[in-house]
Each structure stands twice: as C-alpha cells, then as structure tokens.
Amino acid sequence: MSEILSYTLIKYDGYVLTTGALAAIIFVLLGFRFALFIFKRILFRFFIKRRIDRGRSEAIYLLINYFFWTVAIVIVLEMVGVHVTIFIAGSAALLVGLGLGLQQIFQDLVSGLFILIEGTIKVNDVIEIDGMVGRILSVNLRTSEVLTRDGIMIIVPDHKFIVEKITNWSHSSESTRFNVEVGVAYGSDVDKVKFILLACAKEQKDVINIESDTAHEPFVRFVDFGDSALKFELFFWTNKIFNVEFIKSDLRFAIDRKFREQGVIIPFPQRDIHIKN
User: Fold this and answer.
1) What pLDDT digit, counting tens, does each position of 84-98 carry?
2) Is the domain of 214 the same as that of 149?
3) Per the confidence metrics, is the pTM higher than 0.70?
4) pLDDT in tens, 206-249
5) Which of 191, 236, 232 is nearest to 209 (CA)?
6) Comparing 86 with 150, which gets the higher pLDDT?
7) Among 119, 137, 161, 200, fewest CB within 10 Å belongs to which?
8) Measured between alpha carbons, how far is 104 from 106 in angstroms, rounded to an integer?
9) Segments forming the whole domain that contains residue 60
10) Is residue 155 within 8 Å of residue 104, measured between CB atoms?
11) 132 with 185, same domain?
12) What are the E-state strand segments in 70-192?
C-alpha cells in the first residue's frame, strides 16, 4: 500500500505529485462536498422554521457555497505545494492587467455580491427590465437567469440590477395592483357600467376579492370624458403577477360579453365631415 501511495505521478523542477497526495486532494474535495450537502439541509430546515423566503435563503446559501469552495481550493493548493500568498504576490502585476481588461466582469462580480447580501433581487421575483417582464430563476455571483413571459431564458449581468432602474413587482408584497381600461358611449348609465365592471372582476378567480379588505378590493374609476367615449378604469389586485396579461385578457372578454348582454355600447372613434360646394 505504501508503495502505491508513494508512486510518483508528476515530477517537474523539484515538484513531486504522488498518488497519495492526489488521493488526499480527492478526499478533501469529496469531504467538502458532503459537508456542504449536510449543511445545506440543516440550513434550509432552519430557514423554513424562521419563515425566511426562498429567494433570501438561496442568496445566503450561495454566499456560503462560494466561501466553502474558496476554502477548499486554498487547502488543495497548499496540499500540492502551491503557497497562496506567494502565488498572489508573484502575480500582482498580472492581476492588475487583468483587472484593467476585465473591469466589466469585476463590476458584475461586485454587483452580484451586493445583490446577494442586500436581497433586493431574489429568486421568484417578477421584475421589469428594459421593457421586458420576467421571473428571476437564479441569482449568481456574476449573472442572473430571467425567464420571460414568452418562455425565453435571458442571462442578465448583475450590474444592470445595480446601475439601472428595475421595477420589482413582487419585492414588498406578493400581490400587485393592475388595471383594465374601457370606454362606453355617451348616454350610457354610468352606475350600470360600474356595476358590470365590478361584477366581472369578482367573477375572475385570479383576482383578489376580499370584501373586508378594502385595500385589495377591486374598484372602478371614472377617468375622463373622452372625444368619443366615457373612459373608465377597472383596478384589481392579483397574486398571479407573472401571468397578469392573461387575467387582463379574461377580464376584457367578460366585460365585452356583459356589455352586449346589458346593452352597453363600446363606441369607436367617429368624425362628421361637412362638404361645402
């Protein structure tokens, strides 16, 4: 056994790598991986008991994961005879050159670190960025994965979440308010229109309808006297933020159907032209 462990695999300029050292490296890496697996299970049980949301739990675990593997790499380098302090000092000029050439990557790394610590962007958050709405699937140290409503995966550099304006629809609450606009013909019974709009909202299963909670109860606003129609807006709250466009579409179908049943007319723009001879 001793002969097998002392067998030389690599020998170069005074450096020797034996099978025993390689086995020790593999053992250390597997040990770290197993320890991280156990720690993850314990950590997430703790998060569940403390009712910490999934996004923040993933962020904390990701930071711990990076720390674990950084320590593992340092230990492995020391085991193979590479002293980290000497390595860093000897490559200082190279690191400066890389830093100048890879400023954007380092900016993303620092931004990712701030995002993971602050928790402003978390897994499952629904955000709007560059006019695009998507759900955060993962937040990593350099990039984040965003799934759009079209089912397209977008890889977003983390610095965009720091330096640009981002709308996080689900940051402070799981429910968000939206609205549907509609116009009716002049002479329509406005109270009847209001009743129909509220009825459509209350019949939609994905709209929050809590009679005792006025903050989340649908309501109608008479917006303006338009050129060709009386303008109304139906405001509603929903937890289905990611699929809200489907909810709006269902509401429009229901509004159009009920307006036809009740004789309420949705006008279209008209102009009278007078021709003089």
Assistant:
1) 665 555 555 555 555
2) no
3) no
4) 998 766 556 788 999 999 998 889 999 999 999 888 889 999 99
5) 236
6) 150
7) 137
8) 5
9) 2-90
10) no
11) no
12) 126-129, 132-139, 143-148, 153-157, 167-168, 176-184
